Amino acid sequence: MAQRLAMSAERSEDLTQPQQEYSGSEILLRCLIEEGVEVIFGYPGGAVLPIYDSLYHGAVKHLLARHEQGAIHAAEGYARATGKPGVVIATSGPGATNLVTGIANAQMDSIPLVCITGNVNQDLIGTDAFQEADITGITMPITKHSYLVTDVRELPRVVKEAFHIASTGRPGPVLVDIPKDVSNGKTGYHYPEQVHIRGYQPKTDPHPLQITRLHQALAEAKKPLILAGGGVVTSGGEHELIAFAETARVPVTTTLMGLGGFPGQHPLWLGMPGMHGTYAANHALLECDLLIGIGARFDDRVTMGRLDKFATGAKIVHIDIDPAEIGKNVDTYIPIVGDVKKSLSAALEGLPRSRSEAWVKRVQGWYREKPNRYRDSDQVLKPQWVIRHLHESTGGDAIVTTDVGQHQMWVAQYFPFAKPRSFITSGGLGTMGFGFPAAIGAQLAHPEATVISVTGDGGFQMTSQELAVIALGNIPVKVAVLNNRCLGMVRQWQEVFYKKRYSEVDLADSPDFVKLAEAYHVKAWRAESKEEAARAWKEALSAPGPAVVDFRIHPEENVYPMVAPGKGLDEMIMGEEES
To answer: Residue ranges of the Thiamine pyrophosphate enzyme N-terminal TPP-binding domain (predicted)?
Structure first.
């Protein structure tokens, strides 16, 4: 590998030699270099062969995934860990359509991506040519913007705009579809320094009058509450949020996407709200008289879709960079459109202290008296114990990725994240198979960090082929499989809502994950007790490269607290408590 990289570096010098004209693929590569792209995730094919021929020079690192879904989730992991756009390349037809899940995932969670797809020659578009797909049409509802490049001379402008759109305002995925004749076409090269897009001027500064109204509302409030979402992490406004909460003395609950945006062990933190939220967070939402939503969407996993039972006695302030979110799900008393970091900075000037001391003590009491609990056991391995052990063994200094389901909720409940961008998960779309490749992208972004992919036995099997990637590159991702031999969250819903009629959730015939990992030349361990789990995890953490630990947890363990769909936050199922 080292020899290969050295050869690539030598060849990259050739690309810098002055030329009069460049091919479209060479121009694309130069544009990516201008944007500071460090790594591209992708999978080659016929329509992108000119682009991959340009990549042969090695001027930009490329990570060869084993499936396009793995590539785009890795790009998402890189973007979520850094805040910079992730870049993915796929060929036309099935290569492009295999990106669709990742594009929708990024759109739902506001993640900046630039997705480059190849297409057939323009004279073949519309003829049902081999591996032709209308990827711009297919992805139109799930991208922030998309381009079909029809002239090689337009390529630099398009790439410049794509990165600008993906990373400004409310971030999101942008697709650039390049027909093969454009990649092969030739022209001179000039990369624009600025972007001018009429009709796209994101508003980032809040209106001063609305900030004044927020101050007035805070001064009058007796039971204020902050609902902080992923917008805090995206904007880098975590320090401003801490200052705001401490100065005004306002308790904070963070959504799933907001975890890490406020320290998980801060005395004003109440945990996560909603379907699997804490007693304190949900009851604070029920009783508050001023609710300040910051970079949060008020989605149905928080409100449960029961607005008649959600913060009914509260005036709602909504701070968001996307004006379309204001008033979409809840009636807003004070709308503040702007960048979260800038809005909080503006609000800190002259910020009054609320009359909330009795309220703060009350909700802190709830949090102490009714924390997330589980009934531990020395006979079976409990997933909550595993997550707590992962936290203790790393001191919380790790980047953790997850898919969706029970393991995702246990991580959210039992791993108190202290820093932004340390929890990477599929929030809005809820994508199985996301977490493992996302961990690869996060690890490439932060080579020295401890990166843990916590996954389930169902989700791991959706993208486990990417084990080849971490093995070949010796990428030190640690995979913790919470293996309950079933689709855990589906099974839990069938237990609670369908009278234990378990339909098609049994995964007992899954492969031996230790042997699977070893087949890819990745070290692996299995653990069925606390003692085995502690020993296996210690050895996995100490291993210099990638590692997999198959934690065989109790198959009937459920995630509690839980609010059933259609129920109000006052109808929580608390479940078992620690003995």
So the answer is: 24-136
